[in-house]
């Protein structure tokens, strides 16, 4: 859910803002007590590249790694081809290692991205009067992508971010201990004799839902079906065919894994993609890539760039 959603992307009634880090030119706008980042696709990080941004942001560990190491395609090409002496990382100002400023003799340090582990309820103070419990839950979208479960005195809210709600993923949600208290059992029971505090089931007061494919009128393949169909087509080509797998954005990792398993092969990634994937928490991604293009017939392409190293 990118910028432009109602209420300035706030999780009303909490002063929590999700995936929008710009400052609206609206007199009714009030600064949030807390920012949340669901994932690192470009339409969800607007405003984070501003050097003036200085607020705390909650995200997953993978999102923090990917954002701090992000390089635009044109800058990557220039650096790798010797056209630039240094890498350009537009979000590096969000984390500054301790350094001594010579003029003032003061130490400067900042680390605005605070990663939280998944499925771990964490208490966060929004104000002197309001403390919420925040839980990050996998969103089945791309590396680092999460949903946010906010529980507190003003209500319980689930913000899905961008998610792929296929059947197998929804089944895992029904077994998630952090969500089970909101999911009624298949058989109805009567709790009329219990007080609200004693009842085992709780109610979500609001769900901020990704509806990107709500109006699609055709069936969408599951990830598993799409990957299976792709590798079957690839298997029809001659054995020594070189394949360029165009992963134009984060989120196609299941394709890479399917290709690696089907052909029992590693996939070549350039300096940038290798760095990003090796820093994620996914062990299958970390063991899948190679920096040696001569060792495999499968090449990872991103932003239309084919690695030459």
UniProtKB/TrEMBL annotation:
One of its GO terms (biological process) is interstrand cross-link repair. The keyword Nuclease applies. Keywords: Exonuclease, Hydrolase, Nuclease. GO terms for molecular function: 5'-3' DNA exonuclease activity; damaged DNA binding. It comes from the Eukaryota. The keyword Nuclease applies. PANTHER family: DNA CROSS-LINK REPAIR PROTEIN PSO2/SNM1-RELATED, PROTEIN ARTEMIS. This is Metallo-beta-lactamase domain-containing protein. It comes from Sphaerobolus stellatus (strain SS14).
